[in-house]
Amino acid sequence: MRITFVSNYINHHQLPFCKAMIENLPEGDEFTFIQTEEMEADRKNMGWNAKLPVFVKLAYSSEEENKRCRELIFDSEVVIFGGCEDESYISPRLEALREGNAGGEKYLTLRYSERVYKDGQWKFITPRGLRKKYLDHTRYKKLPVYLLCSGGYVASDFSLFGAYKGKKYRWGYFPEIKDIDIDELIRTKGYYFSDTEKKSDTPYILWTGRFLDWKHPELAVKTAKYLRDKGLDFHMDIVGDGPEKNNVLLLIAAYGLEDKVCVSGFKKPEEVRAMMEKADIYLFTSDRREGWGAVANESMNSGCAIVADSMIGAVPYLIKNGENGFVYLDGKKEDLFEKTRLLAEDKELRHNLGKEAYNTVKNIWNPEVAASRMMQFISTFMAGDEFPKFESGPLSIENSLSENKISKKAAE
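Predicted structure:
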């Protein structure tokens, strides 16, 4: 059996799942990742362009390689397709299946997707958009094609145009999950002056990412002002770069926060993880345009008490408000400020939420569980049996609630 994973490019958010899939493969089976385009320069600058594993093929490297990749997508018994806007990679396979000319019922296609309408679901009403969604998705509803929902709002978007009814499953991104002594890690958290000197009662707050308007780095600065004005001691690091950086720096100066907030440029993924492991609180302030948000997985694995916007894709799947993190209602910055204040004031609370956050990704939302369940899903399909029914986590069945209900439920 050949399993082929197709995406725009491989990165450290997908690599652990791919490696776990290979470890789960029966002898003689093959796993290939097809990368359809070159990674953008800004992501390379963030340290995302690690050395490619041998199972990765670059479809864009030559015409000959592109042809081989397309043939593999057409012929593979299982294709996981997502993160690639070029439908010509998958449409010949789906059309052949629809016409009964290839593979038949034993050829499985799993399409994974972030939310479609990142700017608002009102866009679904455009005739041109509906036509494309029909051609790419809805017309294949009777075929063995299933949707992997990489985010809590994906099913809601796809339900608007009637695609994948009863065939939507929870999914996501699965960065490396470290096996850590969480009690020891929590004990060592706090604001570090240096590698050896620490103020254990001074909460260390972290924000990381590209400085884009929809990631709202300014909210981290405004949160810092709120905490300072409440008389709380803390230290905040804001890590990254981008078009909003100058605005962030100006805001810090205007509020007089230079002694509380430090801004640094991009750091390598492993450096960011090291900072997360020292941080008490992680602020995740993106809006609905954050399709998933793998920093949620990473900060939770690092034992951080996370405070996240309700419309971020990963939030409805990963965070239970008040149990393993805090969720604030999208657009309600006062809610963000207050929930961060609660954590800054209560060391025991932030440590308890950090431990539960760690357990969530260590036990359920991780690449090993995702790969194991994926192989179960594939094997039952090939045997003609019913799919396994997982109660939660990767490949559990997804319902199509409205996005307002999902957002409000996440923040309750």
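Summary: The radius of gyration is 22 Å.
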